[in-house]
Every structure is written in C-alpha cells, then in structure tokens.
Amino acid sequence: MSKAKLMMVCLVAAMGGLLFGYDWVVIGGAKPFYEPYFGLNDPSQAWESGFAMGSAVLGCIGGAIGLGWLPDRFGRKPSLIFAAICFTVSALWTAFATDYWSFIAARILGGVGIGLASNVSPVYIAEVSPPEMRGRLVSLNQMTIVLGIIFAQLANYLVFRTVTSDVSWRVMFGAETVPAALFLALAFFIPESERWRAVGRARSMNAPQNGGFIETALPGAGVQKRVSPVWPILALGVFLAAFQQWCGINVVFNYAEEIFKAAGYDVSGVMFNQVITGIVNCAFTVAAMCLVDKWGRRPLMLLGAGGLAALYTILGCCYHFEVKGVAVLIVVMAAIACYAMTLAPITWVVLSEIFPDRVRGTAMSVAVASLWISCFGLTLTFKPINEALKAAGTFWLYAAICVVGFVVTAFFLKETKGRELN
C-alpha cells in the first residue's frame, strides 16, 4: 500500500478506538439525567446506579474473552465489522431505552464492542504497518480513543447547555450512532491483514510464504526451527495490560472533579475543565506518536512508570499536608500528561508487537481481558482503599505499584522498535 492508503486504512481501523473512547466517557455526562428517569437518584438505589455505570465493563470483559477467538478464526476485518455493529446497535438501543434492564443490556452490548475493538484494532494496524512506522500508527489507535473521549466531553457539555434535561441523556448516547455507522460502512472497504492470511495458509499447507516460512506451533505442522514458548510472553503481556490500569491514572481522574470543585468551579465549570483535561490528554498523545519510533517502546514505558511514581508521591504529600488549589491542579495535569505520553499509547503498541503471529489475536484477547478485569477491580476497590488509607495513602499505594511496574519493565521488556513481527 502507498503511505496515503495505509494511513486511511489505519484511520478506519482506529475508529474502533474513537468509539471506545466515546462510549466509555459519555455515560459520565449523561448520569445526572438518566438516573432520575430510571429512578436511580434515590440513595436506596445505590447498587442499581453503580451497576448502570459499570455494566459496560462486563461487556468489555465478555467481548475480550468470549470473542477472543474471533480474530484468529475468521480474520481481523470481520471482527472489526462485528465490533462496529455492536457500537451502532448499542448507541441506538441506549438512546431509545425505556426501562432499566433494557438500558443495561444496551450498555453491555456497547461494552462487547469496546472489548473486541480494543483487541482487534491495534493488532490489525500493527500487521499492516511497516516496522519503521508501526509505533506511531498503532499509537493512532490511542489517539482516536482520546479524541473519542474529547468528543464525548464536548457532546455532553453542548447538550447540557442546549437540550432540555428530559431528553438530553438520549441525545448524548444517540450521537454515537453517527461515527458508529460510519465505522461500519468504511470497515467493509479495508483489506484483510495479509499477515493473518499468510499464517492461515502456512498452517494449512506448511508452505513458504514470500520467501520465508511462517513458523507454527501446531502439532505435526513441520516446524522449520525451534519456536519459543508463548507463556512467558503472554505473562508479560497480561502484566503490562493490568499495569496500565493499576498504575492509578483512574484515581487521578476520579479526584479531578473534586480538585476542580475545590478550586471554586461550579458544575458547568467542572464539565468545561474536563474538556481541557481531554485536550491535555490529546496533546501529549501526539507527543507519544512523535517519539515512539525514535525513542523506542521500552524507554517510554520506563518513563511512564517512573514519572507517575514520582508524581503520585508528590500528590500524596499534597494531600497529607493539606495543600490545595492550583499547585495540586498542576500536578494532576502533569500526571495525565505523563500517562498520555507513555503508558496509555505505548502499552497498546507493545501488546500488538510482542506476541507471535500464530497466536497474536488470541494472546491479545487474553491481555485485553486482563486489562478490563483490572479496570473492574480498580473501580471496585477504589472506595474501600480510599476509606482505609485516605487520599494521601491511596496515592502512595499507587506510587508503589508504579515502582513495581518500573522494575518488571526494566528486567523483562525487550525493545521492539523497528523489528519485524514474528
């Protein structure tokens, strides 16, 4: 493919990331409006309210685990098409939901789309990209996730200011239909991954492809040379995926609203500042795209783990000594910038590169499932941890986790910059 066609193909695949970001964030702005409609704003309905907010995560786990075999069995392109169908149907279904359980089912279906897209999009982009461009093109998937988050924040803000509260939550969810339908239409026109086709042919015919043998680990397939075991690489992938969540950035986002309120902002101001947070996230994701193929994956992963450990230590001290206002706000923005430039995009790049061809789709699904299970666990344990350790102790705990992530990355992650996929 020419570079122009390659960029267009990767942009289409990365639309899964755009919808991932939008679907993940839109519910936060819609929450104050759909809760009264479904009667969830009563304190006695706390569990039902929490389940409505977290139900998409169940779909993410189901999409990653239950459909993890789909990309290796039927191909990357059909998997992207199925994810687009999930997004489109979920957006319409959520917008027109008339009862609580219908709303929950629609959110779970959207989660299935997220789980599948977060697996397939980076793998597809990695397989169609040349080594010298692969890092920034796979990072494009994270960029579209960030753009999806910004679009959701902007949509929430604009709808909040212009649409009556009775239907505003329906408009917020329904707006996703436009990019979802566009993704569905365009996904039919992208080519299938030739690397996936080559692996399939080699498995069935055990024949040379493009001057070289595609290695397989299937019994009796006539392995051309010793194939390294997958389990150590899979264990590293599972750890890195979990670490991307347990590095604590969601804690920063959870505290962001409180920090904005402490600085004197009203509800409208908080929503506007969340848009600014999204812009910072986007700007430093662009920085990551510029650096990933120059600096490499390993240095950026180490920078992210070490940088967040230092920033969380400072935040913990701020809360311990009751420092508030602009100083804390600056540290929070720095943490978001650090994450956006390192662990957020680079983890996806690493996961798309470290697994061998013969199991890439399935192994990626296991790693992505680890990510979403970790996300669910982080959300579930955040309040108990915060109550037990208070704000300062919570940030210091996640600083310690980042130190562990730094050590594991330093000892076990090999650089993949510029290497051919194996």
Count the DSSP helices.
16
List low-confidence stretches: 207-211, 213-225
Distance between the termini: 21 Å
Give the C-level CATH assignment of the largest domain: Mainly Alpha
CATH architecture term of the largest domain: Up-down Bundle
Q: How many domains comprise the coordinates?
A: 2
Shape: globular
| Rounded Rg | 21 Å
Element pattern in H and E = HHHHHHHHHHHHHHHH
The helical percent reads over 70%
Summarize the structure.
This protein is mainly alpha-helical and 422 residues long. It has 16 helices and no strands.
Describe the structure.
The protein is mostly helical and 422 residues long. The protein has two domains: 1-190, Growth Hormone, Chain: A, CATH 1.20.1250.20; 230-417, MFS general substrate transporter like domains (Growth Hormone, Chain: A). The chain is built from 16 helices and no strands. It has helices spanning 3-38, 46-66, 70-74, 76-95, 100-128, 131-162, 165-174, 177-187, 194-205, 231-246, 249-262, 267-295, 297-320, 326-341, 343-354, 360-412. Helix 1 (3-38) packs antiparallel against helix 7, helix 5 crosses helix 16 and helix 6 (131-162) runs antiparallel to helix 12 (267-295). The chain is globular. The two termini are 21 Å apart. The model is unreliable at 207-211 and 213-225 (pLDDT under 50).
